[in-house]
Design a protein that fits this description.
about 240 residues; alpha+beta; Phosphorylase Kinase, domain 1; six-stranded antiparallel beta sheet; three-stranded antiparallel beta sheet; about 25% strand; globular; binds adenosine-5'-diphosphate; binds magnesium ion
Length: about 240
């Protein structure tokens, strides 16, 4: 399977940079954001690149490269496609769901490249929690749950609902989600909400009981049947001298 998708707004600037084909991105330097992962018999890695955007201003892009990591899904017509295809599908079609902007996607048999734009000024949920006052964190958590509700109301489970995949603008509290590789439809709103919030709470040791409660109470506004109880916040260990 061979496909190339370029976001309309980016077509001219990418062409100018010589970044119109999978091959062009494939040969960029590999200053990986985190060590590449070797799973499913292949590998994938994420790096960053600064290029002039459609408005000419320098823009930060995240470049995901992958080889030999495929998955068969209903949405790929039962065919094994690179797992980044599933992410691209969500980013390009989930119109009303908060998500990072996609810039480029290409697939060539075993390889795939997916490029997204880093939203200016946004930080991940863990960074946000460490940086703001409790009242602001409280408001931010409501904004995060409202963002998740856009997926859950459509019975979509994000599937990798980790703090590092949730970006928030500390000024406006707007939220964008990323890494939709594992999204799937669930049979109910409750099931989608339960799975994602359970995952998030387990991965967010920085939230105290009030923070955990805020997420769950807000989620019950759109998923009243949600019976999930927050896993306890990890105990702080005090070392006495
Ligand atoms: N568009 C983006 N904006 C900001 N950060 C991003 C973006 N895309 C990826 N990242 C960062 O890179 C990390 C790895 O990207 P991710 O899409 O999660 O790849 P992987 O499939 O390898 O987990 C994310 O956890 C996040 O910190
Ligand atoms: Mg990830």
């Amino acid at each position: 399977m061979k496909t190339v998708h370029v976001a309309d707004a980016w077509r001219a600037s990418l062409a100018e940079q010589g970044l119109s084909e999978l091959q062009d991105w494939w040969h960029l330097s590999t200053d990986w954001v985190e060590p590449p992962n070797f799973r499913r018999g292949g590998w994938s890695g994420v790096s960053r690149l600064r290029v002039p955007g459609p408005d000419g201003a320098e823009t930060l892009l995240y470049v995901k490269r992958q080889a030999g990591q495929r998955r068969r899904t209903l949405t790929s017509g039962g065919r094994a496609r690179p797992t980044y295809f599933q992410d691209f599908l969500a980013l390009s079609t989930f119109r009303d769901c908060p998500r990072v902007q996609w810039v480029f996607f290409a697939e060539d048999d075993d390889r795939a490249v997916l490029v997204t734009r880093a939203p200016d000024g946004f930080v991940d949920l863990g960074t946000f929690a460490a940086r703001v006052e409790p009242a602001r964190l409280f408001a931010g958590l409501i904004a995060v749950t409202a963002a998740l509700s856009a997926l859950h109301r459509r019975r979509i489970q994000h599937g990798a609902c980790y703090p590092e995949h949730i970006l928030i603008d500390p000024e406006t509290l707007r939220v964008r989600l990323l890494d939709y590789e594992r999204w799937r439809y669930r049979w109910s709103v409750t099931a989608a909400a339960h799975a994602d919030l359970d995952q998030l709470l387990r991965r967010a040791p920085f939230l105290d009981t009030r923070g955990r409660d805020t997420l769950l109470r807000t989620a019950r506004l759109y998923a009243p049947r949600l019976t999930l109880t927050a896993p306890p916040a990890p105990q702080r260990v005090f070392h006495h001298a």
